[in-house]
């Protein structure tokens, strides 16, 4: 039996049935109490009521919820051997054609991890940087043109298009430019598949295994079209690498790196693994990055001093350029990095994770049978155990060395923020795309701060948290104005 550290201070061993939790209905359990789009909030509210380890039930199945930072860190360290990704989540993703690192377990995961890590090194991102700068400048020019013409800017829509362009550019070596062209077939298929996966994850009965509705048949067709498109991209990539063999040693995007690794003698990888990981990269990178930028744009105006400091930093580094032209400039954006960490603490795109026990194990003195789904409340654990002063306040200074600006030193004393919060997971399955995500966020935010003034629209309804596959803002009522206009 595996043993997860008992940081919750449980005095004696208990079983899942002994745990406290919300009362439910016969058969349905707590299903009727869970609100669409607010599942994360339901679980966080229950944690405040029932403590850091509790259970709830749905259709006679018990689920365990953990909101203790030490226990969560231990569970994350125990992947993929003691715990794995929820089999239901993995199954839904694989049905959509995303069989790659995200869904792999055990030895397959170890092999896939090596493949993904080679494709997402800082060196690969640096070689992709001119494309990232071009796409960021394209976003800036689009907004300036719209404002000059008196047109409204749909910031949330454009951020999603921008991050999709960047992610597909790196993952597949293609510039589909959804920012300016909304009718790209690949973009439509990808968006459709993602929505179907999110819908299926909250559908209690997997009816599509018994019979398929028209929307399910279209999902299958969309997945097949995506697969065929990436096969074509792989062929183009191989042709390009044959014409320029230096790309095998110095790939300029993730697909080139994946193909180079796959084509090595004895690699053990197939084109299917390349396709699965390319789709996984898009799936993992699109909404997560755009939503982080959106939440940061929602939080920053609450502190005019923070906006001024972040803008001054961007101005000093970008100078007369519209966007950062050197990737090393991003490393000098200390205040923007602190603001990003604070946004990810307050509004993480993944406020919880779902793990599933492979073997019988212990969590905080609670006996967990194999096959038990355990929800890890990442945000709630940081709030409960992080030791932050004014935990509800947006204070980027708390992440700076020495906790400048009068904030607490709880965060700034920790060199790796993942020890206080879990924006990129933790343990062996720590997100391999962290460097890219951070670079993309800094590129977009430094461009916005350097070129635009922005405030929240007066009288706009409060921005709500909506959870599907990630936590997204319900709206982004932002007023943009070109600086100097």
From TrEMBL:
InterPro entries: Cyt_P450, Cyt_P450_CS, Cyt_P450_E_grp-I, Cyt_P450_sf. Gene3D superfamilies: Cytochrome P450 (1.10.630.10). Keywords: Heme, Iron, Metal-binding, Monooxygenase, Oxidoreductase. The keyword Metal-binding applies. Its cofactor is heme. The keyword Nucleotide-binding does not apply. GO terms for molecular function: heme binding; iron ion binding; monooxygenase activity; oxidoreductase activity, acting on paired donors, with incorporation or reduction of molecular oxygen. It holds the Pfam family p450. Heme binds at residue 431. PROSITE patterns: CYTOCHROME_P450 (PS00086). Belongs to the cytochrome P450 family. This is Cytochrome P450. It comes from Pseudoduganella aquatica.
């Amino acid at each position: 039996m595996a043993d997860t550290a008992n940081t919750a201070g449980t005095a004696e061993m208990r079983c899942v049935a002994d745990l406290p939790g919300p009362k439910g209905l016969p058969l349905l359990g707590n299903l009727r109490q869970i609100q669409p789009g607010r599942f994360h909030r339901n679980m966080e509210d229950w944690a405040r009521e029932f403590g850091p380890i509790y259970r709830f039930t749905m259709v006679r199945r018990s689920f365990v919820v953990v909101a203790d930072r030490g226990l969560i860190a231990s569970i994350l360290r125990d992947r993929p051997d003691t715990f794995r990704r929820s089999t239901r989540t993995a199954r839904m993703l694989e049905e959509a054609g995303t069989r790659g690192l995200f869904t792999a377990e055990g030895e397959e995961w170890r092999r896939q991890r090596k493949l993904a890590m080679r494709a997402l090194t800082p060196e690969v991102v640096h070689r992709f940087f001119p494309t990232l700068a071009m796409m960021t400048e394209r976003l800036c020019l689009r907004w300036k043109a719209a404002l000059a013409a008196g047109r409204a800017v749909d910031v949330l829509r454009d951020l999603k298009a921008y991050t999709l362009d960047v992610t597909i550019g790196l993952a597949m070596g293609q510039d589909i430019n959804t920012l300016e062209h909304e009718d790209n077939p690949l973009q439509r298929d990808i968006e459709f598949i993602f929505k179907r996966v999110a819908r299926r994850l909250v559908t209690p009965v997997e009816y599509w295994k018994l019979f398929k509705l028209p929307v399910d048949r279209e999902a299958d067709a969309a997945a097949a079209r995506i697969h065929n498109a990436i096969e074509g991209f792989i062929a183009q990539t191989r042709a390009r690498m044959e014409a320029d063999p230096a790309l095998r040693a110095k790939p300029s995007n993730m697909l080139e790196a994946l193909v180079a690794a796959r084509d090595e003698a004895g690699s053990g990888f197939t084109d299917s693994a390349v396709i699965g990981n390319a789709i996984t990269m898009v799936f993992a990178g699109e909404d997560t990055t755009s939503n982080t930028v959106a939440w940061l744009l929602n939080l920053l105006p609450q502190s005019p001093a923070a906006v001024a400091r972040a803008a001054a930093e961007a101005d000093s580094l970008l100078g007369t350029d519209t966007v950062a032209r050197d990737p090393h400039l991003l490393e000098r954006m200390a205040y923007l990095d602190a603001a990003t960490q604070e946004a990810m603490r307050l509004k993480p795109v993944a406020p919880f994770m779902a793990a599933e026990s492979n073997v019988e194990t212990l969590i905080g003195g609670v006996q967990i049978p194999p096959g038990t789904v355990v929800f890890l409340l990442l945000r709630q654990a940081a709030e409960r155990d992080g030791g932050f002063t004014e935990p509800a306040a947006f204070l980027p200074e708390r992440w700076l060395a020495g906790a400048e600006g009068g904030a607490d030193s709880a965060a700034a004393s920790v060199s790796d923020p993942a020890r206080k919060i879990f924006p990129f997971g933790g343990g062996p399955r720590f997100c391999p795309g962290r460097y890219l995500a951070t670079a993309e966020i800094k590129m977009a935010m430094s461009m916005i701060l350097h070129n635009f003034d922005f405030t929240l629209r007066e009288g706009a309804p409060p921005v709500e948290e909506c959870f599907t596959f990630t936590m997204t803002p319900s709206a982004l009522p932002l007023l943009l104005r070109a600086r100097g206009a």
